[in-house]
Amino acid sequence: MLFILESMENVSILVWNVRGLNDRGKRDNLRKVVDDFRPSVVCLQETKLAHVSERDVASFLGSDFSEFVFLPAQQTRGGILIAWRDGSFSVEHHLIHRYSVSVLLNSSNGDRDLQPST
């Protein structure tokens, strides 16, 4: 399921249960959606990735997303990634729990905060 949320001026959030990103085709499809919709924040569920590097994020989200927080998958289940476009937000704090990730983001101009949780 894919959701594009536009809740604030000039801020859009992509929320997607990607059902695994181990396949090159799925990564390419995600990159196309990100390139087409240009979200400020991306929240991905069920990545099924045990490790996520900056290089991985750049490959499936683009080089504008070098900042992210992730929860590794456990064997073939789970995996969460929250990433935000460079220069759009700074991180106040983040929490990684057993089944969820939360990030408090402050906008670069200081006029709004976001707290996406996946």
Structure description:
- The chain has two helices and eight strands.
- With 118 residues, it is an alpha+beta fold.
- The protein has one domain (2-87).
- The model has no long low-confidence stretch (mean pLDDT 86).
- Portion of residues in beta strands equals 35-45%
- As residue ranges, the low-confidence spans are none
Spatial order of strands in the largest sheet: 1-2-3-5-4
Number of strands: 8
Overall pLDDT, averaged?
86
Which structural class best describes the helix and strand composition? alpha+beta
Properties at a glance:
8 strands, about 120 residues, five-stranded mixed beta sheet, alpha+beta, single chain, globular, three-stranded antiparallel beta sheet
